[in-house]
Write a structure and sequence with these properties.
There is one protein chain. By secondary structure, this protein is α/β, with parallel strands linked by helices. It folds into two domains: 49-105, Ubiquitin-like (UB roll), CATH 3.10.20; 111-192, Photosystem II 12 kDa extrinsic protein (DNA polymerase, domain 1, Orthogonal Bundle). The protein has helices at 2-30, 71-77, 108-111, 140-144, 151-164, 181-187; strands at residues 49-55, 61-65, 101-104, 133-134, 191-192. Strands 2-1-3 form a three-stranded mixed beta sheet, covered by helices on one side. A two-stranded parallel ribbon has the order 4-5. The radius of gyration is 39 Å and the shape is rod-shaped. The termini are far apart. 16% of the residues are buried.
Length: 197
């Protein structure tokens, strides 16, 4: 009799425990969790870099690019290369950095291997006078045609005369940033400021 009573008590205890576990599981399943659900936001986009490109490029200027951009990417953004661009002096695969300036050089024919100056004549007799470029009124292309002067330096000459007035002598071209005595000695016989008003 005691054995039966003992088994009944054990069975009752097991039943109570199982009932409590079942109730707890049902409570957890049906109960709404506290607080707001966590929403995942995408990581912030990295800040773009600003790079300045000048020289033999169709649309020089400052461009905002991805941080992993390369030289070929900014060339594409700037409308491509000019026909006289010298890509042999550029590393198109180089990674760009914020605040960097890329100068696209021109071919040697625009820099050093120019043809001999043309001969002009003021009358019917031959003359040995050369055509000189008036640095006060020359266009970007005309200045670029000078040896050792590329598009970048040509633009600097134009900017200088716009900000400081016309050149009063050919020696004054040395005041343009980047044009020193070395360049001046090689172009002095090809330039003039005779056309001052």
């Amino acid at each position: 009799m005691q054995k039966i009573l003992k088994e009944s008590t054990i069975n009752l205890a097991i039943g109570i425990v199982l009932g409590l576990l079942g109730s707890g599981i049902l409570f957890l399943i049906s109960h709404k969790p506290y607080g707001d659900p966590i929403s995942l936001v995408p990581p912030p986009s990295p800040e773009p870099i600003l790079v300045h490109i000048v020289g033999a490029i169709n649309q020089p200027g400052v461009y905002a690019l991805d941080q992993k951009s390369r030289v070929q990417d900014i060339i594409r953004e700037a409308g491509g290369l000019c026909t006289n661009a010298d890509t042999k002096k550029l590393n198109l695969a180089a990674t760009l950095k914020d605040g960097q300036q890329i100068i696209v050089p021109t071919l040697a024919s625009s820099w050093e291997s120019h043809n001999e100056p043309q001969i002009i004549s003021t009358d019917s007799t031959p003359s040995n006078a050369t055509i000189k470029i008036d640095i006060n009124h020359a266009t970007l292309e005309e200045l670029d045609s000078l040896p050792y002067i590329n598009l970048e330096y040509a633009q600097r000459i134009i900017t200088y005369r716009e900000e400081n007035g016309l050149f009063t002598s050919i020696e004054e071209i040395q005041d343009v940033f980047g044009i020193g005595i070395y360049t001046y000695e090689r172009i002095k016989d090809l330039i003039t400021v005779d056309d001052i008003p």
